[in-house]
Specification:
- The chain has three domains: 2-68, Structural Genomics Hypothetical 15.5 Kd Protein In mrcA-pckA Intergenic Region, Chain A; 82-161, Pseudouridine synthase (2-Layer Sandwich); 163-265, 2-Layer Sandwich (Pseudouridine synthase).
- Helix content is 17%, strand content 33%.
- It has five helices and 18 strands.
- Strands 8, 9, 10, 11, 12, 13, 14, 15, 16, 17 and 18 form an eleven-stranded mixed sheet that branches.
- The protein is globular and about 65 Å long.
- Keywords: Lyase.
- One of its GO terms (molecular function) is RNA binding.
Length: 283
């Protein structure tokens, strides 16, 4: 039995009518051949009883199977990740993320992400400490141990990491100073923000440190991020009538086919919570 929920996105929900191997069950319930099913398994696009699986496991009658038949694809591993590492020690690694690549595995793609590529490059596990959106590029920190990850997350909650971004936006009317908005607490994107406080909406604070006009009705801004909400910079600048160049989701004119916007995390500064050593990174 199949559910239509998520059908338009290629998501198939199946209650297995038979017992047997996962691939065989899917062959009998989806219009996919074995090669396609094995590829989806490898990519991490199949879930068995709510757990991602990459193996042709044994299925019982009534088991729940979810298949993402149209998984999002991202930049392939080009083997150049070592050259993109800005700094590395025994506790963490700082790397220069490229546009179009997730920070970690997505719900339908286990392998095509920066965390996976770094692990292959460094031959060890690395752990996510903070995030950049898929189309955003720039500096990001991965922990080399769960201990550093935990302590670094405390530092982020206390707003003790200095994060500076550079963006190119449409329009000429921004000015320096603090921008305050409130974001609707919804998992959906694009995010909705308001200048007026709404019940349970989350505060978004950023500071425009520098603003300069460019040609073609564009401007460049240097931004200090005070809070770290999902899509915060993108949503706040759009709400001010100055969407980031290329950010179609937030009202900008389409410039590129690839998933890329003119937003870069260009400076990070923090004190290592395990050693007390201060670090500053710029690109």
């Amino acid at each position: 039995m199949q559910s239509a929920r998520g059908f338009e996105y290629g998501v198939r929900h199946i209650l297995s009518p038979q017992a047997g191997g996962l691939c065989d069950v899917l062959l009998g319930n989806l219009e996919l051949d074995r090669e396609q099913i094995e590829f989806l398994l490898h990519l991490g696009a199949i879930y068995h009883n709510h757990q991602r699986t990459t193996e042709d496991s044994s299925v019982s009658v009534g088991d729940y199977i979810r298949v993402h038949t149209k998984p999002r694809r991202f930049t392939a591993n080009d083997g150049q990740w070592r050259s993109r590492i800005v700094f590395e020690n025994e506790h963490f690694v700082v790397t220069n993320k490229i546009s179009g690549l997730p920070v970690h595995a997505s719900v339908d793609n286990l392998h095509e992400n920066l965390q996976s590529y770094l692990q292959q490059t460094l031959h060890q596990n690395v752990y996510v400490t903070h995030r950049l959106d898929v189309p955003t590029r720039g500096l990001i920190v991965y922990a080399k141990s769960p201990e550093f990850q935990t302590e670094f997350n405390k530092l982020l909650i206390a707003r003790e990491m200095n994060k500076i971004y550079r963006a190119r936006v449409q329009g000429h009317s921004l000015s320096t100073g603090l921008l305050q908005h409130y974001m609707e607490p919804s998992p959906r994107a694009p995010k909705v923000v308001s200048k007026e406080l709404q019940p349970k909406w989350q505060e978004c604070l950023l500071e425009i440190l520098e603003f300069s006009k460019l040609e073609n009705e564009m401007s460049e801004v240097r931004i200090k991020l005070h809070t770290g909400r999902t899509h915060q910079i993108r949503a706040q600048l759009s709400a001010e009538g100055h969407p980031i160049v290329g950010d179609v989701a937030y009202g900008a004119v389409k410039v590129w086919d690839e998933e890329r916007i003119e937003l870069e995390a260009c400076e990070l500064a923090f004190t290592n919570p395990l050693t007390g050593e201060h670090h500053e990174f710029k690109i």
